[in-house]
Target: Translation initiation factor IF-2
Amino acid sequence: MRVLEDMSTNNESQEAKKPLTLNRPKKLELKKTVETGQVRQSFSHGRTKTVQVEVKRKRTYRPGDGGKMTAVAEEAQAEEAEAEARQRPIPEALRNLRPEEREARMRALEQAKEDTARREAEEAERRQREAEEAERRRLEAEERARREADEAARRAAAGLPEAPAAAEVAEPEAPAEAGPAEPEPEAAEPAGEPAAAPVAREVERVARPTPKTREAEQEEARLVKKKVAAKAPAPSRAKGEPKRRQGKLTISQALDDEGNEDRIRSLAAVRRQREREKQRAREQLQSGQKIVREVTIPEAITVQELANRMAERGGEVVKTLMKMGVMATITQSIDADTAELVVEEFGHRSKRVSAQDVEIGLRGSADDDALLRPRAPVVTVMGHVDHGKTSLLDALRKTDVAAHEAGGITQHIGAYQIEVPSGDKITFLDTPGHAAFSEMRSRGANVTDIVILVVAADDGIMAQTIEAINHAKAAGVPIIVAINKIDVPGANPNKVKQALLQHELVPEDMGGDVICVEVSAKTRQGLDNLLDILLLQAELLELKANPERNAEGTVVESKLEQGRGAVATVLVQRGTLKVGDIFVAGAESGRVRALLNDRGERVESAGPSVPVEVLGLSGTPEAGDDLVVVEDEARAREIASFRADKKKTATMATQGRGTLEQMLSAIREGEAKTMPLIVKADVHGSLEAILGALEKMATEEVRPEILHSAVGGINESDVTLARASGAMILAFNVRANAQARDLAKRDGVDIRYYSIIYELIDEMRKALGGLLAPEQREVFLGYAEIREVFNITKVGKVAGCMVTEGTVKRGAKVRLLRDDVVVHAGTLKTLKRFKDEVREVQQGYECGMAFEHYEDIAVGDRIECYEVEEVARTL
Model:
């Protein structure tokens, strides 16, 4: 330690010897950079500890004028303020407190002093206002006295009686007005206390006001209330005046001239006034005549809704119904007829409406003749299967559609439009010729302008040809007969023309009006002549339509495609269908997302007689449904919902299950033999044809039960339904997805795929025929005559017989004939020859026979032996 002290002493002496110099002449000043102080720490159980604390302060300099370094003024001032605060004497009551508590107390004292000064200023201001008010009143009293003296002098000069002195009237007001000035000496006493009182007393005075101050404030408030009550009531606030005062009333607000605003009416007063007005309106209504209203009545309406529409009480409506013999509660529905009687009973007018009214105005009004423009003719090609309809269209379009049809037959309606060399356009509809597609041919005839009846020259008129003729006649459209395949050996067009006479179609060369054209789709012979005749016929028909209106058309075909959703082939009949239009198609609605022509090209619009594929439907509509463009989606959804409900009701009515007793009796009689089926097809037209063909197969004993039918591929829900119901899935031109295939393989669900409709129909006919009970047929074997009857112990009676005809077999069925009358029918139990059991005995041999459970046999009886075989039945 001593060595260290010597070293420190030497260092200090060396530093003291060095002179302190500066680069520039400047006054050198040193200040303390470390401040020391004591802090008292408090611990638990009342223990305390004093700690020495050093605070280092950083001095900041910056170059000033002339390059001199000067300290920052703000920090210097802060340091001086802190130094003054440290040098300021601390009151005795605050010495034992911690610095934080001491600072809080000091801030409270300063705030108390500020509040005291503010109150003194407010009090002085109030006294000044009162003095000014007293001076103003004194001047007004002097002026009033002077005017009264002048008035008295004038009356005395005129000889009139003197008026009562106004001073006597005004005297009672003086004490009330001068009242607030009395407590001034008391209120002034607290302000006169010395400011240099001890700190503890100052804190107590700030925390709790003196009794004199509180009494003075109460007296002032009482006088202010009396003064306000003496004033006249303020009128209600007019429009544009300030709002009523919010919150509590203070002395300063009461004495302030701006605070004396007129109060507005309360909300309760406004509510009472409105209630009185309503009561007066009700009284006027009761005293006047009854208001007769027009009540709209739908097909079914609840009692409450009917009462609301009549503006009557629900209880009164229920009473009226009870008088009419109808017991209905307020929430029950009544029919339109009953509701109409109730409305008339109450004296109102009724207006009947129906749910079908949503379709009123859907198609719009008829077009003006000035707006009609020529349109292309719509031609439907019809005829028997395999007579060359699609090949003829391919020759006209220069395409090859028939080669891509399954089995070489058309199973969908195809819509195409071609342009002839003259620039005119013709729209063609190709219909299937198979018997199952009768509905398709009917639709094609209904939307067409001209029908081309294709008849093969080597085959003549067949069943579907006759059906096509009937459809065309029912539609009332002209028929052009195209005699096809004239290049085939054995073709005889004259035979076809003569056969047409049997169906009231007289060719032109026989004196009639039916045009017959001989063509060959293979060699393109006669096609130009056919097109010329079509254009001539269309010109005679004067086909016109208005393209400048909302589109209307017919759904020719609909299908469900993966990636594109529901797609419908639509033939526009009126107006122009554009992308973005909102439409209704049968029980489905949607917005046109895209339009594709017959070549698969996107188009923005389609005019009259133009076939297009429409994308954007909510579901697949039925073929033959009308497509109508509407103004908004709400109307479209409303109409689609109404049509869907109507369709559902009709389906439930036609597919009713009957009563439980009928079903049980059918099961007991063995009649309830059904084949559950799920049918999925690629397009709606094919689905419709399949369902129609299956329904025609139903008989009294067996029938197909269609559990579900839809357009599109087979999914997991179809397989689940088939597994739960034991149904078979028929897939026509569609396939099952991977998940559905795996599920069907796991659950053993039978999925049958078809691409040609008559193959599906033939297999279903065989399957339904397998459900039929087989037909039983008797096969005669032979006769035997009883020659002797033997009674054997433990065996019974045995007949000794001679086979007179045919053969007798063991186990065969037998009949016992006595005098050519059947007395027993049973089974042959024993057949023996001598003592050996044999299988059969031929004619001319003797044998022994015994019957099961029958022994009443006699000599001379004949035994007829036969077998029963089962033969499968077919539909």
About this structure: DSSP finds 24 helices and 38 strands in the chain.
